[in-house]
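Please go through this chain and its backbone structure tokens and walk me through the local backbone shapes. Keep your notes short.
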Amino acid sequence: MEKILMIKYGELTTKKGNRNLFVDTLYNNIVKKLDGLNYTIKKYRSRMYIISDNIKKIIEKLEEVFGIYEIDIVYKLDNKDIETIKNSIIEIYKDHDFKTFKVKTKRADKNYEIDSMEISRILGEELLKKYSDLKVNVKNPDKVINLEIREEGVFIYYDKVKGLGGYPVGIQDRALAMISGGIDSPVAIYLALKKGIHVDCIYFDSPPHTSIDALNKVKKLIKILKKYDSDIKLYVVNFSNAQEEIYAHKANSYMITLMRRMMYRVACTFAGEIGYSAVITGESIGQVASQTLPSLSVINEVTNVPVIRPVACLDKIEIMDIARKIGTYETSILPYEDCCTIFLPKHPVINPKLYITEQIENRFDCFKLTVNTLNNIKEESLEEKSVL
């Protein structure tokens, strides 16, 4: 009998013909995550097993891997004989700290001669016979003793750690996320990663209107998100000229609408050039003037790749709760302005008209401005720059 970890896949088990691809991707992500640790991993269609002398550290790492539904600390028996199982149950629970229990059996190996209910009854009786202080409570027990009989062995467990769920990162195509220094976009990226999308980030910088601290904040946010996907890249756009050009043409209440359209032109064109399948944003319906449905409609009109808005239907409290859970909240609220706030008009339009938007854009060369801005995109190191 050895103590190991059992990994349950959850939603991955619904994938039928594609399950092997999902499991293989999850396996590769786990191997990458556990780099440098001492362990052995065994992969099966319905479960993975990890053997290590540092279970606690392994669990800490696995809690940051999408595609895992549950991590169970299990006792594995190679011998499936019912007498061996009975003796093992007695040994495992000799120092029990509970008064009531129930045994829950899953007989995945259908060739096993005893059915699940009978196994649970046999083991329950054995515990009652051995330990007189115990009682069975099937509705509300102090402890649920789980038993799985599978082709690869017998597994007894009660300690469970909830995983992140979702799909393993990399099972979907790559997408480009428009990240700001706020609360919403890092949460949107996290939710996209949970659906298996590998995400790289694009940040619109506006020096000297924005400070190096604002850029450093974005880098901190990405470093936090990298625990869920270590391969995230950051692209930085020098957006100053575009913003100043729009501002110079008296956009007034339409300033944010025009600016967001320019951002989308740049992000979508860049995504198409690099080969990203979608653009991801942190827009939440109705949260600010540029995120009303009329605004989103006018802004979205310039896009030529799918735009995914993972937090679109979440309210601010829900988004903040996720931000706290994933560790981005405290960094997001640092008081450094990004380019979306420095030119914010006093009364931004909440119901923009497309024809008015296009009339203003006709005052300057949008195509040329887009091309010039695209020429000012560079991949940025995630090392923070010092303030001189």
